[in-house]
Amino acid sequence: MVLLAVGAAVAVGPLASASQAKQKASPRTQPALGELFDQRPVVPVLAAAALARAGAPIPSVLDPASAAGVGQAIAPACLPAFGPGLSYQLCGFGDVQAHHTVVLLGDSHASMWTPAFVQAATRLGFRLVPLAKPGCALWALHENRPGWPCLSWWRGVLRVLARLHPSATIVSFLTGNYTVSQAGLAARLVARVMRAVPHPVLLADPPSDDWYVDNVPTPAQCMAAAGANLGRCALHLTPAIRASLQSIQAVVLSHHYPAIPTLQWFCDGDLCPTVIGGIVTSEDGNHITPQYAQALAPRLTNRLRPILADLWRAETRRG
Question: What's the predicted TM-score (pTM) here?
């Protein structure tokens, strides 16, 4: 990892690394389309869902760290503080000497993927730069509210992107909290961000479940409760989440944006187990655990490889 301390998100210097090669803005290309619903669940999800549907008991042996909710996936210095924070360090991960830079952009639903993206960056040979502000959701990006200067942060991000010239900007925000009637709004907000950033790639938001917000603080606590089983502590793909993803998928297809689906890594139908392959998948019903993000790194890498290859080929042709 490399760091460059900055005073605020709106005044960032060039990324520090051993390679200072100039980057040219890559041209728009015709990327592979990404369907968000047509993926068959991966084998570990199918197995976990079968156990959850059967009401199987909580395994007596789990990866202890996976159930602990070990905290932020990015070092706190690399993120503006929750709420009023704007200052942060511009951090580089993966192959920090690479010619290609990939930005991971969003709220906490972007930063939670960092363990997977760091591995992908190393394997695919790119420099990963996270630009995320937890709490600055899609609906809040274009205004400054008391204690939440999201618009100032967003304007600063756009200036940083203009200086970094990333080969790809991975866009990942919480979209699971919109109602069915707000699905179109969620899609419009996603589209607004995608239009504003260079070479956007959508990372679909995995399901979250308000049951945990309203009843039990974390899946780990659910599993420790009397009478718990894998079915009771599972998450679910709700009609609202499905509606939002369908509307977002329409944006992806109509604008030919590359996209990475994620449902196949979490859900079988509407059931999304919180223990998959012996790893607790969710910290709070809303964010994936760093351990499960790490476990998904090879799958994410395989999804990223053809998308980045297309973008890099186009970049070379224009170079």
Answer: 0.86
